[in-house]
Amino acid sequence: MKHLKTCLAAAALVLVGCQSAKDVGATTELWYTQPAKVWMESLPIGNGRLGAMTYGGIEEETLGLNESTMWSGQYNENQNKPFGRAKMDHLKKLFFEGKLSEGNKIAGDNLAGMQTSFGTHLPIGDLKLRFTYPEGEVTGYRRSLSLDEAISSVTFNAGGVNYKREYFASNPDNVLVLRLTADKSKSVTMNMSLDLMRQSALTVDDNQLVFIGKVDFPLHGPGGVNFEGRIAVLADNGELNMDTAGVSVSGADAVTLIVDVRTDYKSPEYKKQCVDGVKSAAGKSYTDLKQAHVEDYASLFNRVAINFGEDLNKTTPTDVRWKQVREGKTDTGLDALFFQYGRYLTIASSRENSPLPIALQGFFNDNKACNMGWTNDYHLDINTEQNYWAANVGNLAECNAPLFTYIKDLAHHGAKTADVVYGCKGWTAHTTANVWGYTPSSGTIIWGLFPLAGSWIATHLWTQYEYTQDQQYLAEVAYPLLKGNAEFILDFMAEDPRDGYLKTGPSISPENWFRTADGEDMVASMMPACDRQLAYEILQNCIQASQILGVDKEFCVTLQNALAKLPPIQLRANGAIREWFEDFEESHPNHRHTSHLLGMYPFSQITLEKTPELAEGARKTIEARLSAKDWEDTEWSRANMICLYARLKDAKEAYNSVQLLQGKLSRENLLTVSPGGIAGAEGDIYSFDGNPAGTAGMAEMLVQNHEGYIEFLPCLPAEWKDGSFKGLCLRGGAEASAVWTDSTVTTASLKATSDNNFTVKMPQGKTYKVMLNGKELTEKPDAKGLLTITLKKNDLLEIK
């Protein structure tokens, strides 16, 4: 998306007085002393479309191949069950009259969608490499993933020969590249084969192994993409033999493999793209392929550096460090590594040229989620949103591009759902979505009747503007989509005759149940708290966008009038935030979702300063959830707790959640998991969301600006008493950096990426002077310690 402005590139980020993470030996590498035995020990590489899980085996190497458009299913023109405005108005009336049981029955019978060909993302299968070595023992084994270069490596000595493998997923060349070398000539001897999960026909084309097929996965309905994969085998000297039974290389100095897989998802030229892409990459030297890859990747990753003091455990393998954290030990070096891993995974999974945004597992598919009832799809009731929480604050704004393309597609199909199901203008989407335009409720309203799920994902459009201040993007991309969703909300809401408030509904608070006074458990009601907070956010975003762009003045007035008629966020009798408009009891007090706390994070409708009573209510809500028997602790709900506790400035509890996410809810490769026993899973299932959401929460502990001012180290735990960060992005268009010792800021800086006014809360604990572009300012902070300054793009404000 050419109009997406980004925070400044790495070369422009060197801020005076702010040391790099590498200055104190921060580790940006995952490494191990043995091969991966299972998927959750393997290491991910990706270019935003194509990726692999690398195992690092010695005699037999396995690479699990993935491509983001490898989907089953197909478009279903009958996915929306017609209901319409008249029936919907009658249904709302029942709810307003307090006839909840009757209303839930009608909603359950009529408002679920038809998921007959919903589909799921699927893994491709494994590329297998089998090696022959000189006689002798294997020593010095090391397997790693460099986050600085996005290269997975394996090194060891076998029979006196040093072997090395390097794997990367190139975005510039749009292929996977595998390089197998040895320090002695004619020492690379291997066989290559495919163990595919998708039915396909194998052929040989010159020096390429080709597999062609069509996805067939009836578990989630008929349909699926057509695909073609190609693996070019380039042997330096040696003998190469290829046939459909496999490939063999004997006595080579080195071998390079070029891998691509393409599907016909919105790409009728997929076969030609596969042929041309592999041919082009195979015509380049390995050195050129690697250099282009590293330069492209580093231009994104190197924008942010972070450390929490010297990494005292950097000589300890990552899996050992992970086990120690799981046992309750502190490892601040692993904290910094985990933070950067969330950014790495975002880059690996979502680039400007990606055909799809990040799904529930990204495209690093463990073949488990796709076999569950909930599938590897797009869950719009927190998971897809969390997938992108690290993008803006983590200085990766352009990684949001495929998400916005996807929202545009949702809006197109969601307009039909809004009309056919609700009789409303605008567009909507519900809890579960796919790549085929599915926007109605799921097959059941229990977790599916959430028509403001589309609103939640649409808020990312405004967040992008907040960080980039790109008015051209706002006018051409964000505002039209936000306006369409606001039109739905305006038309979907109805005035409650009992109190005069505008209310959405019937809808649910994902994915929870409430209990009525007569003991009946239900899901649907009018204006659950999450709906109120999302409606407020969309209407307010549209008002601001309209005013900034100077358009739709009459519509803006309509939005303002509706905003004034929304109910307030309410407290329960016990002081916690109400999850539903009425003060219902929770049927499942241990439920993993806390959708009624959206107003605290990612939004700022509930804050410590502006709404202290509500902030205290949010704390009580959190404490009740976490203390409930059998609390459903998942990777995404625990990452959410980091973010919420950061907003409460509770450093102890925020850091406790950081450790629980890294240990209990991650695995040896630091990928986060939804643990067995929750949502029907027998065992751990990888889920992408915990990694970037954990990164976002940690960033929130280091710098915040949702209260209207920038605050450095607002939620710093004692464990991070020394450290630094560089390049985190802020709303309003700026990058923040800081260095601290003994929990006290020594230097901090703010670099403007757009013209704007910024208010900074001066750090406490020392006497500071403030410099603007190298000159000391005469302006002084106010009585609250707030300093407001006008910055032009590229201005540097330093606090020393």
Description:
With 800 residues, the chain is an alpha+beta fold. Helix content is 30%, strand content 24%. The chain has 18 helices and 37 strands. Strands 1-6-7-8-9-16-13-12-11 form a 9-stranded antiparallel beta sheet, covered by helices on one side. A 7-stranded antiparallel beta sheet has the order 2-3-4-5-10-15-14. A 7-stranded antiparallel beta sheet has the order 17-30-31-32-37-34-35. It is globular, with a radius of gyration of 27 Å. The two termini are 38 Å apart.
In terms of structural class, how would the helical and strand content be classed?
alpha+beta
> What is the average of the pLDDT values?
95
**Main sheet characteristics:** 9 strands, antiparallel
**Apparent shape:** globular
Question: Which keywords apply here?
Answer:
alpha+beta; nine-stranded antiparallel sheet; 18 helices; disordered N terminus
List the helices and strands and how they pair.
Elements: E1 29-32, E2 43-46, E3 50-54, E4 60-67, H1 85-96, H2 100-110, E5 125-132, E6 138-146, E7 151-158, E8 161-170, E9 175-182, E10 188-196, E11 200-205, E12 208-214, E13 226-236, E14 239-243, E15 246-252, E16 254-263, H3 270-282, H4 286-301, E17 305-307, H5 318-326, H6 332-349, E18 360-363, E19 378-379, H7 383-387, H8 389-393, H9 401-422, E20 432-433, H10 445-448, H11 453-468, H12 471-492, E21 494-495, E22 502-503, E23 514-515, E24 521-522, H13 529-549, H14 553-564, E25 585-586, H15 612-627, H16 635-647, H17 651-662, E26 673-674, E27 685-686, H18 690-702, E28 703-704, E29 710-712, E30 723-730, E31 734-741, E32 744-752, E33 756-761, E34 770-772, E35 775-776, E36 786-791, E37 796-799
Parallel strand pairs: 29-33
Antiparallel strand pairs: 1-6, 2-3, 3-4, 4-5, 5-10, 6-7, 7-8, 8-9, 9-16, 10-15, 11-12, 12-13, 13-16, 14-15, 17-30, 19-20, 21-22, 23-24, 23-25, 26-27, 28-29, 30-31, 31-32, 32-37, 33-36, 34-35, 34-37
Helix pairs in contact: 1-2, 6-18, 9-11, 9-12, 11-12, 11-13, 12-13, 13-14, 16-17, 16-18, 17-18
